[in-house]
Amino acid sequence: MHTDSDTQPAEESGSSRTATYALIMLTIVYAFNFVDRQILVILQEPIKNDMGLSDVQLGLLSGFSFALVYITAGIPIAYWADRTNRRNIITAALLIWSGMTALSGLAQNYTQLLLARIGVGIGEAGGSPPAHAMISDYYPPQKRATALAIYSTGVHIGVLTGFLLGGFISQAFGWRAAFMAVGIPGVLFATFFFLTVKEPQRGRWETKEAAAYKPTLGETFRVLSSFRSFWYIAAATGLTAFAGYGIGNFAPSFMMRSHGLSLAEVGIVLALFGGGAGLLGTFLGGYIADHLGVRDKRWYVWVPAIAGAISLPLGLPYLLLDNTTLAVGFMFFVTLLINTYLGPCLAISHALVPPAMRALTSAILFFVLNLIGLGLGPLTAGLLSDYFTGIYGTDGLRYALLVVGLLSSPAILLFYLAGRHLPADLARGANQ
């Protein structure tokens, strides 16, 4: 199916500028996604003190409840996106999640805040899978990992912005004002996005037959179920995200409890050394995979495997050292390394399937990623923290995050196993 013969011609001059502009705009939308998602993380301590919450409740609020709605809504929205205008879906999604973020600032109790965050999850379910599919139609296969990695830096731009704004606004005006300050701009940006971004030609880089193919939901699942590499990749990304969300969502609390930083100081440290490192790692992961993948496609899974293996021992001094400067330095490198996986994994997953399966493929990948990572990571960290706090006091969170990091280590083996099956799966996918 994915042959060079009878491929559709590239669009006329200006298409490169159109693709670049669309990628920039989609990355900004993704940054709004993570500002609104992660603003809760920096605000956890003041919300906990204001509402008298436990770490388990915080884990449910920032992880499991959000992820449950996000992954449930993601698959039907992605199936819809594979058949209709993806730009319009993203616009509506941005309106919903930004509006619900602003409403979070009006919550008077835990239940109201939980419902508002569920609304954020419903909106954000319509963001990434349609955007992934658009990018794969804007960029050819040999540039997709880099383009998808650039898009994925929106995660860390959002985290960086959320930590900075959340820390300063909350300290100056309270946590409710912080929710409103990041939610309202997203509502306004949605209109600008709708008016200026074009929907790309679906299947632009594939054969006309592949571009016209409209699989059913069952066909998509049957195709993906035949690729063992895809399911190894999905499980590996889920475990990597388990550490990323489990440790990352409690990083502000860890820095405040174990290192004595103020809310504003935490915002600066995590924005620069957390968000900045994640942004750099995400871009480098895609860029290096595209560069090495020209010779061997297995580099798309070998890059995150090698990065994960290096990051494991570096996590020990990050979480166990009492010297704040050294701990932050190790945090930078750990965060950089564990964020190399997303661009390569999305790109190689899209290479396995025809154009009309890409949004749904992303949604299924994100279903596993967010169920394991976002759903169970913060919840596990919260449960362990409450348990260890009874033994070690304020250092209980430190040991909880250490266990979370160790539990994610099988991801390295899963990436390796994905590489063993990848060549045969790619060959079979090209001939379907």
How many separate domains make up the residues? 1
Distance from N terminus to C terminus (CA atoms, Å) equals 6 Å
The helical percent reads over 70%
Query: What's the CATH topology name?
Result: Growth Hormone, Chain: A
Beta-strand segment tally: 0
Instruction: State mean pLDDT (0 to 100 scale).
Output: 87
Query: Judging by the overall fold, what is the CATH architecture?
Result: Up-down Bundle
**Class by alpha and beta content:** mainly alpha
Q: Going by CATH, what is the homologous superfamily?
A: MFS general substrate transporter like domains
Which regions contain 5 or more consecutive residues with pLDDT less than 50? 1-14
Please tell me how large the radius of gyration is.
21 Å
Question: What is the general shape?
Answer: globular
Order of helices and strands: HHHHHHHHHHHHHHHHHHH
Please state roughly what percent of the residues sit in beta strands, choosing from under 5%, 5-15%, 15-25%, 25-35%, 35-45% or over 45%: under 5%
Number of helices: 19
Name of the CATH first level = Mainly Alpha
Summarize the biggest pleated sheet: none
